[in-house]
Amino acid sequence: MTELVLIRHGNAKKLQGETYVTAPLTELGRRQAELTGEFLKHAGARFDGFYSSPLKRAFETATIIGAHIGQTPIVRNGIQEMEYREIPLTVALELFARTRVLDRYFETHAGKVVRHPLMGRVSRVLVELVCAHPQGRVALVVHGGVILSVLAWYFPRERRHWWRAAVGNCSITRLEISAGQPTLLAFDELAHLGELQPSAHQANYSFSAQRGL
User: 199: pLDDT confidence band, cut at 50, 70 and 90?
Assistant: First the structure.
């Protein structure tokens, strides 16, 4: 059994002259990451694998959390947010998927590598990590779109629901993978942030629109 702990990065802002790749955490985002790290430390969390998206806001979040739990994040390519060239391809594919022609494909490939602009690369990394930690707990500090793509991949019958869902900054989502079968343990947990829980606007992410970071 592998437990996946998916943590979204803290609040970030693209500064003038920056790109979505280099956008740093805001002061609020750093404090959210600190609270997340404190929560995990007090919970006695220890990860067999602790990974981060290569994008700056995710790595900063992971580094702050890691300072609290005594672990250094490992940067993994493939789990970064949806890239510009992937957006039109993902939109087109998901609109086509609503015809239900692809239902059987996604259902038979749940938990397996799929051909998809975003889920494809994310699924390759997840399959590798689950195989590398078959009896462990793995944490990934990633992005809202990545978290929702993981859920749409593991639970294909609820794909439309997950693509329309919202994931808050520094929220925690947990899954248990046993014999290839996923169980959702928690989604978008934010209580550890107290008064710093993101507002609905800050938390919003959907497949069809990205508002903020």
Answer: low
